[in-house]
């Protein structure tokens, strides 16, 4: 090969790099290992994590320990889905493109909005992208955000806002839900978008329609973040007047993976179709009239529109969206609904059992689907520590994100959390709290 | 490939069918509307498909056969580094200790995951020659946005506000798109006859309104910009930052480091240089490495290692206490599953292996470039800038189009019939009818030769009958698709009736 | 499917290439011939292929696309029960606690595995209606051999030696083959006009030289033999054993039990009724269930449950102390990985699910049978024995061959072009030009209809031009292959030169 | 569907089963469970096994804890290989058939014999099948078997011999290897086959060629069982005069799986090609002259020859043989050799370290490749118990299979057993033995 190129050594090819910029030493990294050794190394690291197989996991806060059916792995691990890139050549990418089209249809059904993209990075950055869209759509630069929106989403929105330039105003919660009056007060003619989440971060189901009125009134977009697993039960945001419905897709077919990769879904009204961020698959025909799929509306995208693109996203999370589609097909119309009902019933049971425990009380009484918040009459971190010793991850402490709820604990339920495990949690919490009280008093 | 007519999963749906069996609730149940007010409830479940498991498996198996993939053949998609994806990485990512670890788990009980992230940060810092790393960005363009927000914060911290970001006309579309999203104005810089930055044009455009220069080096022509040191000097003189688009890092791993070139901020596409499978368009990850002066502004939280007092080992933790941080770019800690794969990849190759990978990538590119300089290709598809390339090179189909009436797109489509994924086409923009070819280090000489032979054959065929290429492809599941229609009258979801 | 010319992995080999990286020995090394005498050492390493990992993956990926599989389409291969293979079973079989458990591990530290085997034994005993189970046989025919050796031991124990084993002319080839291997002589029993055992012929052949009667019920015609009780009586009268070939158990799970029919020994094909994937020809497993009088002779070791004394739980163990045992049939404890999958399958379906599976299997077979009685199929492909069938049925292509010159083989090959796996052909032997069709319970009405329509279309086509079928297939990776040559001048390995 | 059939209910279809033979009650089995529940159930069972990920495993005895490369799973789990059956329709089974052909080539290379089948059930039953072949080939009914042959193989051979009728005579070992004189004495004109194993069950490399002479002399077949992982190092049986070379295939690409599924390989001289058991793939052409593969020599098999078949095997272990082929391709010519050398060196080191331990001595001095036997000066079962408490499965106790070696322990090495682990074993053995001595005296 060197001869064909006309050099004596590969090193010659690197001479185009000015000598002083050549590293001239080996990287300070260990030498390569055999596959067996790498496996042992990584297995040893994994072994030092208390995953949901080792602890009974009641942590949620946006990502949930659902059971991912085996066919999801079987299909997504097929090299034909795993190894290609973005379908720039549709003729040899029909599999991926059709899967995107099926996914868009499913998310559109879930959210009750006609337009769905093929998927974004994940939840919070999708919220920030909605902000960017809202500015483009309204020409306004003010966001009104309920504090029921996931703290990570609010923080990400604020980070992005420093860039594209927008003001972020937060609205408080009362009894677990967004304070209607404060919201009305906060929204004005300068407001580009109102951001709600339902169920909100404290698990409470918001009355999107009622709260959204303020946005409508001032011509601001209503952006609703939601947990897709609750959409078999809850009125779809689209029916509640949302212009944009989006959220974290992990509960659908994606494992926890310590936070990623998952995907963000993003749905909107027809009106915004040409402002959508990211890839969208569309149906069309080939020259022989055969049905096919392509990347539609590419004129929105960075590779065509460059600085005028509706978003900068390129590589997204196609495989994770495929996983979601397979999971949804596996659940099916009835199963999806039943799973939602299962979550509501087990969560109601858990809420009842836990708040019956001495030293535990409801943080709010609002209706919930699969997650709820309680107050502990003992230091939350100490209680969590004690539960962990019993092999239970009891929940998500609210202190960091909601200083006013220093004593707050957020508890999530999935179909993997059995009644027995819920009872175990109740016992563990009870024991931990009384132990702590003894300790202090 | 599978040629039957496309049928969607919804079209296979039959009321009452299902795959999932769900557990019993196993708790005393209450009527739904006692638990949630009726007006907040959904009337009809979403019209998801109703299909039994065997049909779901068959459906997606058949769909998969309508995809071309890297494990089937040569995929020289320029700028995307379609290198082999070791299956070991999938195996270790799937270990329950990784796959079922909740992102909000107490750091004390996620030490393995945090240590892995810390080790990956250290590895990337060494490879990039910049001391600090944040793994948060979800992909390259997310890293670009992060870099620009860091630049903004860096300047704001010194009481400055700047408006302009420079980027060469060869830059990738995400660069200008990120610039706008970050609230800056893009200023395009010309390219010189060597394929590098046109220095006079650069000088002319530099002033103290310049916040940043975004560069890819080697750039999207696959050429290393020899003036990089001088360029860095000019930008730093006016107090701007230098951003390195790391999409082409695969050319220089262990040979040259962005930090040593004078860059302040680098993004790394783990789904390119570090073998994360591309998944049909993600997932990926775009960690950033930065210099000391940028460090205070890095996203929150940051993975840190705290030396353990009195003999106890070090403790890995998430540091939220970063007053100058630009804040979060996303939820939780980033695409951890991608980190596991990329760290496994780095462990597998090691110091010499990474350098060797880049060396072979460059060798393969130059060999294929040499093959493309022969015969008809040499004549019809001249190289845009004729020098040794790094890991990729760009040809122009201009004369082919003029003389044979066969456009780069036609050539690309005809390649499909030969069982190859085409190169990246019509990018970079400054090359007419561009063909951007990146073979990567994991291809054999045989596949490079087979590709060159196919191009030769297609050109020969085109000389006698250009229509063959212009009507291509013929053997794919569908033939050329009407993309205009898909944009004019977009049909982006299935219409369902019930 | 993939149509390119076949190239073997050896033909892709290039000296010096490799995939594997191996660990360092990490110990002080000695010259090899100091450790092992030179004359016992190998001079040249075997000429295994030298190929890098990406090429290995591509090679076998491409090979895989030259296979038709159950997850692609309808696979009505009679007698093989090609039902859906739930992927859950692969997941649980791969758990390290199963996959990396050494077979010689101390039973005290393999309690989970032994309990699983014990639970599977109990489940199969209940399904078969026979109290004792050995999981050792590796497949159906291995179970047959076991059953015949058990029969021999059973008779020997009573001081008898018998020479004959009866089997109907419809029996599967493994039956007579096993009989010979077990040192018996086969005596064929005729089939009556209802498709059952011809009772007079049976009576005529029964004497006290008969060691055993091997029966499949429903038999290979898919018909349940109504005289089974009487048959059992006759065999038991002369002191013979009754062996149940369980390949067709999928027809009667939860509806009728071999033990209740009077059988002494049953084999179960876990790769048929219990969803173990067929793997292109295995692995499978052929556990046997037996009556009390046969139990003492079961293979060694046997998985047993010992009730734990003083409050401690039960202990599962391997019992070697079985003086009358026929001994081992293989190494260790059997195809455990298959047991895991089949037990997972039984847990998933449960009591009602298994009965429902058989019910649907029978329903699907009878529906397809009805469809095949319509139109051209009804005329050209008459059913061999016209009654309700159980899980499968057999058609005869005799008249099709006579009138159209299209043989069953031609029809089968033409089906390949329509994307179906053909039924089992030319078996059972007593039906001329037999087509044995078993749809299984996991197929939809749509796929049954599509198959029936394809047959209709092929027959219509054949009426106008029989050559179409006689030259078929046309769309497969290769067309009809010269099997005679492969037997006359067998080339069964690659010739390698170096 | 019922209408088309002409019945009112599926039950009617079951009326062909005489009423008294219908079960008429539900099976006494639990009701079905959801996928998530089945997973939990089996995970709980798996959790009660001390697998090689939890214990450091030095047990061998025919099955070894080798590292199975990830591509083996990735490829064998593809539905195209996982779900079809035996390739009766070659036109749509070229993938499986070609893989068999490649496998046969590899095994033929390893054993140095020209003819290989596509794979049998596993090791010991392959030995028994060789006996059946030998009877057919020689018309004789007497087997002479070295006690170095795996006890499971000897027992299985004896079981089968009860059926097809043959006498089994065993020959003792001395210093770990087959006693040459006794072997010579045992072989006579009635001998159908002589069975050897190398390395034998005690890990010792046998001089196959020298021992085989006796068989040659009397026209008996020489059947040699071998460990395929040693064939990069040891002289191939074919060169040592073996008529048949066979063995347990598990070390090649197959996980331990508590003993199966794996596969048996079976190779022979040209002379026996038409007596081979099981499937054999062969190369041929299609009507257009295109290269293809089919099941060759089917006239040997049960579905054609019925009672005259050379064997009764039907469903075999195709997927496991494919796994072996992928593993061999992954190792490649050099890697396969290097792995053999690695085993020899680590085993030599282990033998040295362990026999240096107080209370441990070599059971034999014969050359070994990857497994060796020692004597313990303390009750073996108690020592194993103590090692297990330290998370080490120290080896395979010889007592059951070799009463004369009540104090014997068989120790196996793979590339997964590092020097550190070997040193750990030495320490554990030392500690356990001295503790036991204290205990007794
Ligand atoms: C040169 C260049 N820059 C930036 C990007 C964007 O990276 P990502 O797709 O990971 O967002 C790409 C990827 O296509 C690229 O090729
Ligand atoms: C009726 C019948 N009996 C016996 C067998 C042999 O079973 P196995 O292939 O598992 O050895 C089969 C399988 O093909 C069969 O169909």
Number of helices of chain B: 17
Distance between the termini of chain B: 34 Å
Bound molecules: pyridoxal-5'-phosphate
**Into which percent range does the helicity of residues of chain A fall?**
25-40%
Helix content of chain B: 25-40%
Average pLDDT taken over every residue of chain B? 97
Q: Can you count the beta strands of chain B?
A: 12
Structural class of chain A: alpha/beta
The poorly predicted ranges of chain B are none
Outline of chain A, from the CA principal axes? globular
Topology:
The complex is a heterotetramer, with two copies of chain A (441 residues) and two copies of chain B (498 residues).
Chain A lengths: L1 H4 L4 H4 L21 H12 L9 E2 L12 H7 L2 H4 L11 H18 L3 E2 L6 H16 L3 E5 L4 H14 L2 E5 L1 E2 L2 E2 L1 H7 L4 E7 L10 H11 L2 E5 L18 E5 L15 E5 L12 E5 L5 E5 L6 H4 L12 H38 L4 E3 L8 E6 L3 H10 L2 E2 L2 E2 L10 E5 L6 H22 L1
Parallel strand pairs in A: 1-15, 3-4, 3-7, 7-8, 8-9
Antiparallel strand pairs in A: 2-10, 5-6, 9-10, 11-12, 13-14, 14-17, 16-17
Helix pairs in contact in A: 4-12, 6-12, 7-8, 12-14, 13-14
Chain B lengths: L31 H4 L17 H12 L22 H7 L2 H4 L11 H18 L3 E3 L5 H18 L6 E5 L5 H8 L3 E5 L9 H7 L4 E6 L12 H10 L3 E5 L12 H4 L3 E3 L20 E3 L11 E5 L8 E5 L16 H37 L2 H6 L12 E4 L1 H7 L3 H10 L6 E2 L8 E4 L7 H20 L2 H5 L11 H6 L10
Parallel strand pairs in B: 2-3, 2-4, 4-5, 5-6
Antiparallel strand pairs in B: 1-7, 6-7, 8-9, 10-12, 11-12
Bound molecules: pyridoxal-5'-phosphate (2 copies).
């Amino acid at each position: 090969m060197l001869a064909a190129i006309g050099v004596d050594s590969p090193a010659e090819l690197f001479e185009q790099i000015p000598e002083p910029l050549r590293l001239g030493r080996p990287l300070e990294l260990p030498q390569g290992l055999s596959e067996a050794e790498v496996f042992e190394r990584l297995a040893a690291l994994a072994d030092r994590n208390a995953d949901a197989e080792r602890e009974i996991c009641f942590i949620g806060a946006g990502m949930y320990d659902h059971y991912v059916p085996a066919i999801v792995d079987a299909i997504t691990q097929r090299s034909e889905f795993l190894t290609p890139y973005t379908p720039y050549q549709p003729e040899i990418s029909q599999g991926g493109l059709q899967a995107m089209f099926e996914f868009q249809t499913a998310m559109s059904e879930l959210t009750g909005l006609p337009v769905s993209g093929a998927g974004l990075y994940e939840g919070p950055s999708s919220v920030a992208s909605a902000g960017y869209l809202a500015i483009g759509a309204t020409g306004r630069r003010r966001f009104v955000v309920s504090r029921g929106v996931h703290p990570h989403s609010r923080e990400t929105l604020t980070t992005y806002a420093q860039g594209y330039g927008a003001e972020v105003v937060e609205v408080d919660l009362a009894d677990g839900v967004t304070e209607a009056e404060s919201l009305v007060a906060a929204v004005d003619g300068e407001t580009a978008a109102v951001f709600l989440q339902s169920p909100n971060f404290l698990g409470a189901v918001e009355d999107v329609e009622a709260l959204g009125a303020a946005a409508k009134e001032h011509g601001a977009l209503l952006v609703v973040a939601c947990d897709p697993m609750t959409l078999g039960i809850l009125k779809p945001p689209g029916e509640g007047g949302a212009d944009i419905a989006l959220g974290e897709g992990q509960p659908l077919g994606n494992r926890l993976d310590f936070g990623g990769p998952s995907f963000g879904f993003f749905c909107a009204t027809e009106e915004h179709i040409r402002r959508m961020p990211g890839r969208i698959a569309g149906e069309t025909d080939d020259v022989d009239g055969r049905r096919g799929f392509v990347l539609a509306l590419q004129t929105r995208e960075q590779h065509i529109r460059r600085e005028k693109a509706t978003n900068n996203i390129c590589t997204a999370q196609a495989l994770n969206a495929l996983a979601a589609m397979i999971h949804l097909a596996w659940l099916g119309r009835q199963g999806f609904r039943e799973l939602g009902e299962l979550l509501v019933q087990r969560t109601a049971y858990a809420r009842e059992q836990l708040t019956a425990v001495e030293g535990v009380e409801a943080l709010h009484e609002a209706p919930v689907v699969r997650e709820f918040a309680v107050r502990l009459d003992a230091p939350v971190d100490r209680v969590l520590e004690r539960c962990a010793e019993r092999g239970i991850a009891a929940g998500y402490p609210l202190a960091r994100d909601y200083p006013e709820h220093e004593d707050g604990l957020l508890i999530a339920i999935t179909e993997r959390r059995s009644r027995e495990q819920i009872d175990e949690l109740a016992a563990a919490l009870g024991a931990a709290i009384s132990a702590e009280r003894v300790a202090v008093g | 490939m599978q040629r039957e007519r496309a049928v969607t999963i919804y079209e296979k749906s039959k009321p009452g069918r299902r795959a999932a069996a769900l557990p019993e609730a196993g708790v005393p149940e209450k009527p739904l509307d006692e638990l949630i007010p009726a007006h907040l409830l959904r009337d009809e479940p979403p019209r998801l498909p109703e299909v039994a498991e065997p049909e779901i498996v068959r459906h997606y198996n058949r769909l998969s056969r309508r995809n071309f993939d890297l494990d089937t053949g040569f995929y020289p998609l320029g700028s995307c580094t379609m290198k082999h994806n070791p299956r070991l990485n999938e195996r270790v990512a799937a270990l329950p200790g990784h796959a079922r670890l909740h992102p909000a788990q107490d750091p004390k009980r996620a030490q393995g995951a945090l240590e892995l992230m810390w080790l990956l940060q250290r590895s990337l810092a060494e490879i990039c020659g910049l001391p600090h790393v944040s793994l948060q960005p979800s992909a390259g363009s997310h890293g670009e946005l992060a870099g620009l927000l860091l630049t903004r914060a860096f300047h704001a911290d010194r009481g400055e506000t700047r408006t302009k970001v420079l980027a060469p006309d060869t830059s990738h579309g995400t660069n200008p798109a990120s610039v706008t999203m970050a609230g800056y104005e893009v200023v395009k810089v010309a390219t010189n006859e060597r394929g590098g930055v046109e220095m006079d044009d650069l000088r002319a455009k530099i002033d103290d309104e310049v916040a940043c220069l975004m560069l890819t080096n080697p750039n999207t022509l696959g050429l290393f910009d020899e003036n990089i040191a001088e360029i860095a000097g000019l930008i730093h003189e006016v107090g701007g930052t230098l951003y390195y688009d790391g999409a082409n890092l695969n050319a220089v791993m262990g040979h040259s480091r962005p930090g040593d070139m004078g860059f302040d901020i680098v993004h790394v596409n783990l789904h390119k240089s570090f073998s994360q499978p591309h998944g049909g368009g993600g997932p990926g990850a775009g960690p950033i490495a930065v210099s000391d002066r940028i460090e205070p502004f890095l996203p929150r939280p940051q993975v840190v290692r705290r030396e353990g007092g009195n003999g106890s080992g070090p403790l890995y933790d998430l540091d939220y206490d970063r007053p100058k941080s630009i804040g979060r770019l996303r939820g939780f800690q980033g695409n951890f599953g991608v980190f596991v794969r990329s760290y496994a990849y780095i462990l597998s190759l090691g110091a010499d292996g990474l350098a060797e990978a880049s060396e072979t990538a460059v060798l393969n590119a130059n060999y294929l470039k040499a093959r493309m300089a022969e015969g008809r290709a040499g004549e019809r598809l001249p190289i845009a800038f004729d020098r040794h390339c790094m890991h990729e090179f760009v040809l122009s189909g201009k004369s082919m189009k003029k003389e044979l009436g066969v456009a780069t797109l036609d050539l690309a489509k005809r390649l499909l019939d030969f069982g190859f994924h085409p190169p990246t086409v019509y990018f970079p923009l400054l090359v007419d009818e561009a063909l951007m070819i990146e073979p990567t280090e994991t291809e054999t000489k045989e596949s490079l030769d087979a590709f060159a032979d196919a191009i030769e054959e297609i050109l020969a065929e085109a000389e006698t009958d250009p229509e063959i290429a212009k009507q291509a492809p013929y053997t794919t599941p569908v033939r050329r698709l009407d993309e205009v229609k898909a944009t004019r009258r977009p049909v982006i979801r299935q219409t369902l009736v019930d």
